What does this fold into?
Amino acid sequence: MTDDITTDLACKELVEIITDYLEGTLPQRDRARFDAHLMTCSPCREYVGEMHTTLRLTGRLTVESISPGARNELLRAFRRMKESSTGL
Amino acid sequence: MLPAMRGGQTLVRDSDAGLIDRLRSGHEPTFAWLIDTYNAPLLRLAVTFVQDAAVAEEVVQETWMAVVTGIGRFEGRSSVKTWLFKILTNKAKTRALRERRTIPFSAFDIRDQEDEPAVDAARFLPASHPQWPNHWASPPQPWSMGPEGTALDRETLAVLRRALEDLPRTQRVVVALRDVHGWPAADVCAALELTEANQRVLLHRGRSRLRAVLERYFTDTETPIRESSSVCNDQSISDTNLGDQ
It folds into this structure.
């Protein structure tokens, strides 16, 4: 790693490539620039932390479950399908 | 004895053959598992076509009925997950047309979406700035979050849920499947017939918007966020203190 890669990532660029970074799809060189920038920029560390918080909170949103009535109706239909196919 | 259940929400492609076999043989727990695993994601996609929640639920129910009647003919050329989503997409489109709520379906074509920055450009110094081009002018401030499980915490989640529902539909479905349902990127791409690059763009825009909403909520910035001077001041104060010692 040379010094030049530490100098050329701007904060404005970091906020646009953060998803690629988190997804692990950033090319190695950009990844190094990203890491190097974070070492020296506390606002961007704050930003990355906020993005992690956002993902953690989003992961806590509950998933609506199917109503028991609708679920039972489907299971009944599935049973009928089986009975009619085996009853041939 | 349900190999497909080992991976939690994620179906392992190799186990699809077993999954299909069990469904065809009328193995009810497998079908129940399929419903419990995919009903919410299917609903998530349905509401992007038909905006009425009740209609969306009907479309999902129709999709499941199509699975019941069609599993015997399913050849397994795609994954069960992809198959499910394809059935839903077709049914939802038909329904949207019938309801005259046609949404021109270039849905996941991101080219027709505005190119929106993750953060308002006004919060950065100009590119012409002699020392710090494109660096923060209004840096993000620490969030004041309450402990989990409190009323404040529930309020936070309500704000976030609303923000998710307010996302443009393509961003919403991608963020929901990835970050709420925890699907891997490859599964989202397959189910929504998206390229990886487009999936990432939608994810990025959606996540960035959610972060921005939370930032407004946590920092309560009716007034513009202060210039970076506050950060610098903290720095200079501690520097001064060090100098004094």
User: Anything to note?
Assistant: The two ends of chain A are 71 Å apart (CA to CA). The interface with chain B takes residues 10-13, 15-16, 18-20, 23, 25, 41-44, 46-47, 50-51, 53-55, 57-61, 63-66, 70-71, 73-75, 77-79, 81-82, 85-86 of chain A (CB under 8 Å). The helical segments of chain A are 4-7, 11-23, 28-40, 42-59, 68-86.
